[in-house]
Specification:
- It is built from 13 helices and 15 strands.
- By secondary structure, the chain is of the alpha/beta class.
- A seven-stranded mixed β-sheet has the order 1-9-8-5-4-2-3, sandwiched between helices.
- The longest helix has 19 residues, at 245-263.
- The two termini are 29 Å apart.
- The mean pLDDT is 97.
- Bound molecules: pyridoxal-5'-phosphate (PLP).
- Residues 53-55, 58, 79-80, 82-83, 125, 151, 153-154, 177, 179, 190 line the site of pyridoxal-5'-phosphate.
C-alpha cells in the first residue's frame, strides 16, 4: 500500500531517541527546551512551547488568549476538526469563512462581514501547506482589534512573502503539529510559536496544570488545567528531524513539480496552485475532479490498487456535534463544492519514482475511460 503520507525516519533519528531513553530524563528534561529553541530559531520567532499534540497546542493558545464562553472565532470549514473543537471546548462559537476555490484557503475578502462585537479571534489554516494571504488577515485583525492564530499544522517550511511560517510576522501565534504525516514528526506532538512573552508564559502554565513554581517544594495552581506535556525522547526525534526539514520540503516540492508536469496533461483535473506570495510546502497534494461521482470513482479505483488516497476535508460544520449546535449544510457553498471534488494523492519525501509513476498511471486509467 502506498499511503497518502508517512514519516521519514532514519538511523540518526533512532540514535538520538535512544540516547535520551538511556539518560536520566525521559520527560521534563532538557530536550524539550532544546527542541523549542531550535524550532523558534528555524521559524524566526522568539518563543516556542512544545505540546503533546497539535490539538492541545491549539486549545492552549486559544485559552491563553482568553477565548471563552460567549466569544466567537472565525475559521475555515476546510480543516481538520481540531481547529474548531479546540474553541468549542472553551465555550466559544465558530463562525465559518468560505474558501477560495483554487487553494481551499479562507477567502480573506469575506472576513469583515463575519465580524461581530463578540469576535475575538481569527484562525487561518494554511491548507495543504499553501499560506493564507496573511497580510490581509492581519490588516482586518488590526482594524477590529482581534487576535490571529495561524493553524499551520500543514505548513512547516512554507513561506509567505518570504517570511517563514512560524515567524508570527502577521499573527499573535502559530500552531504546528508533528503527527507522522506532517513535515517533521515526534510521533504525536505539536507546538505554539509566539513573539509575545505574556502568551509564552501563559502557555507554559496551561501545559502543566496551571502550576507556578514557588520556593523549595512550593508550587501554586493558578487555574485548573491539564497535563499537555511532550516527552524528551519525542523532542529528541523532533530535533533530529528538524535538521532535515528543508530537504523534506524540497523533496515534496520536487514531487509536486513531477505531478504538475504529468497530470496537467489530463483533462477534468484541477491541480494545486502556488500564488505569487506563497512558497508552498506541500503537506498534501489535493487534486480536484469535475464531479463528486468522478471523485468517488477515482477514490475506489486507487484504493483497490493499493494507493492510499484520502479526502481533506469534510466541511467541519457537517459533523453531528456541529449540527446539534445549529449549523446547517449550505453555509459555505464554495467549501462544500471544494470538498465534493477534492482528493489527496500520495505526497511524502520517501515516495519513490516508480510509486509516483504508479499513481499517475492509475489516474490516467480512470480519466481516459470517459473519452
Ligand atoms: C489543520 C490541522 N489542525 C490541527 C490538527 C491537529 O493536530 P494533531 O493531530 O497533532 O492533534 C491537524 C492534524 O491532523 C490539522 O491537520
Amino acid at each position: 500500500m502506498i499511503p497518502y503520507g508517512r514519516q521519514s525516519i532514519q538511523e540518526e533519528d533512532l540514535l538520538e531517541v535512544l540516547q535520551v531513553l538511556r539518560s536520566d530524563f525521559i520527560t521534563q528534561g532538557p530536550k524539550v527546551q532544546e527542541f523549542e529553541r531550535a524550532l523558534a530559531d528555524y521559524c524566526g520567532a522568539k518563543y516556542a512551547v512544545a505540546f503533546n499534540s497539535g490539538t492541545t497546542a491549539l486549545y492552549s493558545v486559544y485559552r491563553a488568549l482568553g477565548l471563552r464562553e460567549g466569544d466567537q472565532f472565525i475559521t475555515t470549514p476546510i480543516t481538520f476538526v481540531a481547529t474548531v473543537s479546540a474553541g468549542v471546548l472553551l465555550g466559544a462559537r465558530p463562525i465559518f469563512c468560505d474558501v477560495e476555490p483554487e487553494t481551499g484557503n479562507m477567502d480573506v475578502s469575506l472576513l469583515p462581514r463575519l465580524i461581530t462585537e463578540r469576535t475575538k479571534l481569527i484562525v487561518p489554516v494554511h491548507y495543504a501547506g499553501h499560506p493564507v494571504d496573511m497580510e490581509k488577515v492581519w490588516e482586518v485583525a488590526q482594524n477590529y482589534g482581534l487576535y490571529v492564530v495561524e493553524d499551520a499544522c500543514h505548513a512547516l517550511g512554507s513561506k509567505y512573502k518570504g517570511y517563514k511560517t512560524g515567524s508570527c510576522k502577521f499573527s499573535h501565534a502559530v500552531v504546528f503539529s508533528f503527527h507522522p504525516v506532517k513535515h517533521i514528526t515526534t510521533g504525536e506532538g505539536g507546538a505554539v510559536l509566539t513573539n509575545q512573552e505574556k502568551i509564552y508564559r501563559e502557555l507554559l502554565k496551561i501545559r502543566n496544570h496551571g502550576i507556578i513554581r514557588g520556593e523549595d517544594w512550593e508550587y501554586y495552581v493558578e487555574f485548573p488545567s491539564f497535563n499537555f506535556r511532550i516527552t524528551d525522547f519525542q523532542c529528541a526525534l523532533g530535533l533530529s528531524q528538524l535538521k532535515r526539514v528543508d530537504s523534506f520540503v524540497e523533496r515534496r516540492r520536487q514531487i509536486a513539480r513531477f505531478y504538475q508536469e504529468e497530470l496537467s496533461k489530463f483533462q477534468g483535473l484541477d491541480l494545486p496552485v502556488e500564488k505569487p506570495y506563497a512558497y508552498h510546502s506541500y503537506h498534501l497534494y489535493p487534486v480536484r475532479f469535475e464531479s463528486a461521482n468522478r471523485r468517488r470513482e477515482v477514490y475506489r479505483l486507487l484504493r483497490s490498487r493499493g494507493i492510499g488516497v484520502q479526502v481533506h476535508y469534510i466541511p467541519v460544520y457537517w459533523h453531528p456535534f456541529m449540527e446539534a449546535m445549529g449549523y446547517r449544510r449550505g453555509l459555505c457553498p464554495t467549501a462544500e463544492n471544494f470538498y465534493s471534488k477534492v482528493l489527496s494523492i500520495p505526497m511524502y519525501p520517501a515516495l519513490k519514482e516508480r510509486e509516483l509513476e504508479r499513481v499517475v498511471e492509475s489516474l490516467r486509467e480512470v480519466l481516459e475511460q470517459r473519452e
